[in-house]
């Protein structure tokens, strides 16, 4: 438990202290955000706001995780140090963050709202996702558990649905790409993606800590969880939660810096990686329901427009629909945060009810 608190505290501290430095540095370098011409008129004033603030989230995440383990060593804690599960989730987040960083950097250099072309961005996501897919089913522990399994999962592995390795790799790519793009679509209003992401990651702190308390490795009991490194995953999620909250201090409306694709792709990778390593891939759809709805609004907008030449929303992602309908930006943000909180609470309820259904708890 102390490691979780340390990771969250360090993540928060590094993020909240590093972000203003990045604001000054990126402002001096002219690393400002370009704004979509067809977007809400109120967003025009945001042109030139520093972007690539996701760098602070990533640095704080990595610092929080490793400082927590260094303190464990200093305290002579029985912790085994960084684990395969924790390191692989970090790898996924940092790898996607680098793809996002390149995207942001090209936008800034070319002074446009489009960075990497679709092919380059997809290839970057493909390389990171497939390498993660191969690695995440390696490194079995003494009990034979790997960081993830080739089973589809809900609140634990579904024994009847097992993917052959090639299908599993495709599944990983689709899952990681979907989550990273879903968070990317949501990152259109000040603090919206950061606040919602912090709630989802905090939910995963609770889930992974609960799995650690009821781990089959610690002693078989009804309803126990076969997860390789649940406590270390809680440390990763806690560091990421603290990093998001610290960044949100500067990113909340009116934002002094944007996370950019650097942050949004990394946060999507964190959610995807945590869902796979905690065996909650289907449950994550509920927990991250706001991100799912935002992505579906884009998919529906494109599909309906191409078939009927009519628009379902005034603009997609659909948080802009409400802005164009006359809602104030802060009103949209707060109400969407409330929706994100409801999704997280509902997801936690489903997770706990599944455990109770097996006679545990």
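-> sequence recovered:
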């Amino acid at each position: 438990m102390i490691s979780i608190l340390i990771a969250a505290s360090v993540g928060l501290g590094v993020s909240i202290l590093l972000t203003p430095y990045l604001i000054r540095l990126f402002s001096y370098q002219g690393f400002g955000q370009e704004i979509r011409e067809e977007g809400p008129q109120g967003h025009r004033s945001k042109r030139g706001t520093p972007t690539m603030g996701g760098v602070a989230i990533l640095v704080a995440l990595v610092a929080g995780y490793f400082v927590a383990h260094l303190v464990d060593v200093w305290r002579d804690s029985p912790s085994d140090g960084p684990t395969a599960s924790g390191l692989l989730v970090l790898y996924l987040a940092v790898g996607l963050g680098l793809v996002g960083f390149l995207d942001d950097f090209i936008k800034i250099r070319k002074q446009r709202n489009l960075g990497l072309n679709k092919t380059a961005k997809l290839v970057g996501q493909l390389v990171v996702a497939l390498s993660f897919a191969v690695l995440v089913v390696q490194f079995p522990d003494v009990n034979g558990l790997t960081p993830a399994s080739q089973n589809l999962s809900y609140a634990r592995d579904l024994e009847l649905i097992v993917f052959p390795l090639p299908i599993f790799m495709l599944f990983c790519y689709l899952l990681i790409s979907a989550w990273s793009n879903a968070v990317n679509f949501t990152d259109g209003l000040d603090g919206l993606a950061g606040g919602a992401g912090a709630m989802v990651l905090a939910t995963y702190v609770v889930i992974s800590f609960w799995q650690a308390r009821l781990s089959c490795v610690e002693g078989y009991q009804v309803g126990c969880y076969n997860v390789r490194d649940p406590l270390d995953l809680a440390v990763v999620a806690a560091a990421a939660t603290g990093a998001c909250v610290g960044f949100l201090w500067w990113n909340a409306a009116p934002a002094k810096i944007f996370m950019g694709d650097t942050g949004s792709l990394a946060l999507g990778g964190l959610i995807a990686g945590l869902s796979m390593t905690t065996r909650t891939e289907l449950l994550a759809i509920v927990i991250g329901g706001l991100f799912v709805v935002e992505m579906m609004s884009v998919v529906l907008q494109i599909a309906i427009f191409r078939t009927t030449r009519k628009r379902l929303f005034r603009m997609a992602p659909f948080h802009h629909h409400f802005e164009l309908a006359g809602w104030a930006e802060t009103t949209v943000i707060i109400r969407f945060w409330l929706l994100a909180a409801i999704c997280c609470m509902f997801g936690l309820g489903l997770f706990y009810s599944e455990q109770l259904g097996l006679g545990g708890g």
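The radius of gyration is 20 Å.
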